[in-house]
């Protein structure tokens, strides 16, 4: 492959794009300066020979992969310290390098220090007193200690009120005695707990003066800071009084307990991570759809017209219908994630001044948005993999590993079903308030308007789609609420009625979330369009319309059940969908170019900027140790004796 040649198909695609992808890059980064800063940061890490991938780690053992990851994580940390010394180590740097796409490109096999930054430090900041923050944060930032977040146990991950590890206060010595008394109480899953961390935030049931006060966070030393040998014992481990993080609930030295303003403030780290997961899920989806779109512009296969040459597979409308909704979903989750991040910051600062009013709405939105973004991104990435045929299945395509990273998000930080039921709990209360004429919070205001209007006739606009999706959500919420209360009226107790209605509760929660995402996406694009070129504005509008139309068409059953839509309207929606796919087709490669994802982060022969897929695939497989010699020793050891024995 001659250096720097550009695949002809991609060249043509880039000529036909109606807008300048750089404009989209600047928009997504927040301006040209931010783009430059990001590119510099990426170059600073990706060009470092110690960090660039030599042999793919696919061929390392589990132990080698871990050691390889620790080595690279330490190099990354030192480089972040260099940025810090140059005054360039803002939170975004850390987020990008330690949690985001850049981080996962440098540390393909995971970051042994990841939990230290994304959970251990945020928990101390969110749950520690000022004194405790002063004591621990600088040590943690400077990596004098390495922490993790140990909440989940072998027997409990979801039901944290059921955690079995205990922390019992001993006023005589002013210490807490931590104990994991049963096999099922052993801490399990925390990232870095096995070999990397020497401290942990341990979430345990607090006992003092013989009373259980529920779960609270404690700092526990796991390993000796010099030898890294495990500290003695994992039963009845004693820690000093001030190792209980006491910003919320407190134990005074005499053992008396001071209640937290809300027992749920202990759950704060989980909200933070859920909020960040929305953006992370979007970014992984963006990477996958970049790979699949560029590959689909280069791959020729089959015929549309017998007389014509094999077309780019991106010209099959079914391929467009696989990929373009994923493009649109990236933007939908990106803008929903940005909105949620703003709300999180506002509510968190209100909490600082004891204002708890908006915490329930934040919790409800963080739950359903984390669940829907993780699930939709995972499904979208799998769709991108499938759209690349056999080559999408290769681990070097980066699609399987990206899917694995995102499908884990469906489980961790609150298993999706459980979180959707949390939002449903909020929605049931909201519907009751609506029936009682009580005030509603902003994210459920639509319940009032939907109850008053009949739904309006079809018109080809996103606002009509938003109203339809809100009508579906309100309908599902009302149905679940009514079915549950009918059960209770028939004598079923409320817990059983909840459980028996939980399928409909989850569906109501998902519908509410989808309606929220479409509306947030639409409002965000409406705000942006006046500030960008007419061509980019048109492309962004088409993507938003595509997300709305496609999301509604995936819900035709509910649309027919909860609105007065006609089959004629449905035909109009289908036509609108096909028009949008055709409109987006010439811009598809330009849009993914606008994501400006460095080839080293794409890390896929299918998705490189130059489009030289086949040459890159071949170069990739040549790296396999299995291809180092023409005959593998297994032939002489096993096959040949077998063949001989047959003769
Ligand atoms: C960064 C880079 C990333 C990318 C990198 C990320 C790597 C992460 C690696 C993974 C780390 C982990 O998984 S760490 C472990 C994560 N584990 C979890 O998330 C556990 C999930 N389970 C839970 O959160 C809880 O058990 C939950 C399901 C909410 C149930 O809790 P409870 O039983 O205490 O509460 P319930 O009885 O259901 O409800 C009681 C009331 O409390 C409210 N409530 C419940 N949770 C609340 C909360 N968090 N905040 C406010 N309020 C809350 C409810 O709305 C109810 O309000 P009312 O209705 O008004 O009464
Ligand atoms: C990659 C990864 C990294 C992780 N990192 C950490 C970490 O660093 N620190 C940490 O503490 N934990 C960590 N975890 C653990 C994670 O938080 C838990 O796995 C998660 O909370 C799910 O809990 P669980 O495993 O107990 O699943 P379960 O709750 O046992 O889920 C099993 C099934 O039960 C269902 N279920 C459970 N409760 C209900 C209910 N009330 N209503 C309806 N259905 C229900 C679920 O929907 C699910 O289908 C990690 C997990 C993974 C996969």
UniProtKB/TrEMBL annotation:
The listed locations are:
Peroxisome
| Keyword hit for Secreted | no
InterPro entries recorded for this chain? Answer: ACOX_C_alpha1 (IPR055060), Acyl-CoA_ox_N (IPR029320), Acyl-CoA_Oxase/DH_mid-dom_sf (IPR046373), Acyl-CoA_oxidase (IPR012258), Acyl-CoA_oxidase_C (IPR002655), AcylCo_DH-like_C (IPR036250), AcylCoA_DH/ox_N_sf (IPR037069), AcylCoA_DH/oxidase_NM_dom_sf (IPR009100)
Q: What is its main location?
A: other
Residues that, per the record, bind FAD = 152, 191
Q: In which pathway does it act?
A: Lipid metabolism; peroxisomal fatty acid beta-oxidation
Q: Which GO terms describe its biological process?
A: fatty acid beta-oxidation using acyl-CoA oxidase; lipid homeostasis
In this protein, which residues make up the domain named Acyl-CoA oxidase C-terminal? 465-644
Q: Which GO molecular function annotations are given, in alphabetical order?
A: acyl-CoA oxidase activity; FAD binding; fatty acid binding
Q: Which residues form the active site?
A: 413 (proton acceptor)
Keywords linked to the UniProt accession: FAD, Fatty acid metabolism, Flavoprotein, Lipid metabolism, Oxidoreductase, Peroxisome
Q: Name one GO cellular component term.
A: peroxisome
**Pfam entry (one):** ACOX
- Keyword Translocase assigned to the entry: answer is no
Ranges for the Acyl-CoA oxidase C-alpha1 domain? 267-428
Q: Which metal ions or organic cofactors does this protein require, according to UniProt?
A: FAD
Domain called Acyl-coenzyme A oxidase N-terminal: residue spans: 20-146
- What SUPFAM superfamilies has UniProt attached to this entry? Acyl-CoA dehydrogenase C-terminal domain-like (SSF47203), Acyl-CoA dehydrogenase NM domain-like (SSF56645)
What family name appears in the similarity comment? Belongs to the acyl-CoA oxidase family.
Q: What is this protein called?
A: Acyl-coenzyme A oxidase
Organism name: Popillia japonica (Japanese beetle)
Recite the lineage of the species: Eukaryota, Metazoa, Ecdysozoa, Arthropoda, Hexapoda
